[in-house]
Amino acid sequence: MEWIDDGIVLARRRHGEAAAIVSLFTRAHGRHLGLVRGGAGRRAAGVYEAGNLLRARWRARLSEHLGSYACEPVEGFAAGVLDDPLRLEGLAAACGVLELALAEREPHESLFDATLELLRGFARPGWAGDYVRWELRCIAEFGFGLDLERCAVSGTNHDLAFVSPRSGRAVSASAGAPYRDRLLALPAFLKAPAGDPADAAEITAGLLLTGHFLERFVLGPQRRALPAARTRLVDRWRHSATISSRSTRDS
Amino acid sequence: MTGPEIERLIQLLARLPGLGPRSARRAALHLLKRREVLFLPLVEAMTAAASSVRTCSVCGNLDSCDPCTICANPKRDPSQICVVEEIADLWAIERSAAFRGRYHVLGGVLSALDGVGPDDLSIAALVRRAGDPAMKEIILATNATVEGQTTAHYVVDRLAGLPVRVTRLAHGLPVGGELDYLDDGTLAAALQSRRAISSAGGGG
């Protein structure tokens, strides 16, 4: 058995002294593990950092075997975000979510392309909004798409302000007002076309929204929690939101 | 083929890093052939190390005294702490003889895969040490990996508010490195961290 495919590094676990078991999110073969001889050594260390795009050749005697990878770097995304704590947590969170949520060897080509676009976008301003939209895309990919187009109560597509934590459907401000404590906030940038800027409070609200449904629909049934990197990402945005609201109040 | 004592010795040697069953067999044979000059002194040294070496209660280094030789050395600069992931990193910096301050060993990095969280690392002790009025600088020498830098950013957050300067090691070209063989990330980091060259030199 042998194939060649592009793959994004999701995780690397040391195996013995110098080898590593690498988890790649490949375009045509989904999340696929393989042994990399020398993958934990110094020479290969930079190649198998989470988030990097590789051209991978997988070989095994039988398809159900773990098999081994021989990889070449194509695009290194990890190095570009190491100095930026928010982007670094964003990259680690994206890889962590995929590592936990994707079933092994189940192809998700469109999600692969969306993930690649997300990784390329980390260098641009507005990446955080793209990250929240990417998580919505993940939730939809696993069959639990949220309906943020119209109000679940009145059917209107105006004045949408909340999301029902049970059904994942949008609720207008007027219909949701009596239940606002039990509803999730729908940040404005998720209603606007992609690319519209979002402030820290909106990003936090977006992450809390997608985090709820990732846990409820995707990871919860597998008895898994959200990855620690994603929790830290939310904490960082929440902290930024607190600082910016404090400075707005002071000025 | 061999007695149980020799088999046991081979099995234990095979657990050491860099040794497989075949090389462990060679090492065992080598030791047994050089019983007086190598095997018995090695046994003595290992017994002495096992009974006397302990973890430094201040920095986390391994030494036969507590605090360790580095922490107890009055000639080391007490106003600088270099934070490293593992003891091997501390030893690597010591070999370079480029740093005359003190150290703090975190004992690993934040890793969701390995289930390592902030409470599993020696971060609280670092924050306590950084709160010392004599402390001026904390140098983060974690590895330039996603996990290493995530840990570094977390430590920076925990040190926020303390009157210390927090720095990190530079990323870029290794000495003897050739541009053609460097990965894109290292080259990008080296370009970002470029600095002016002075024609005056550093002779003072």
Can you summarize this structure?
The complex is a heterodimer of chains A (251) and B (204). With 251 residues, chain A is an alpha+beta fold. Chain A has helices at 42-45, 78-81, 85-101, 109-121, 127-141, 173-176, 200-219, 228-250, and strands spanning 2-15, 19-26, 30-36, 53-59, 68-75, 160-163, 170-172, 184-185.
Number of domains of chain B: 2
Distance between the amino and carboxyl termini of chain A:
65 Å
Low-confidence stretches of chain A: none
Q: Spans of chain B of 5+ residues with little confidence (pLDDT < 50)?
A: none
Order of helical and strand elements of chain A? EEEHEEHHHHEEHEHH
Mean pLDDT of chain A: 92
What is the SS-derived class of chain A? alpha+beta
Whole-number mean pLDDT of chain B:
92
Enumerate the strands of the largest sheet of chain B in spatial order, edge to edge or round the barrel: 4-3-5-6
Helical stretch count of chain A? Answer: 8
Record the strand order, biggest sheet of chain A.
3-2-1-4-5
CATH architecture of the largest domain in chain B: 3-Layer(aba) Sandwich
Features:
heterodimer, A: 251 residues, alpha+beta, 5-stranded antiparallel sheet, 8 helices, 21% strand, B: 204 residues, alpha/beta, Helicase, Ruva Protein, domain 3, Dna Topoisomerase Vi A Subunit, Chain: A, domain 2, 2 domains, 4-stranded parallel sheet, two-stranded antiparallel ribbon, 6 strands, globular
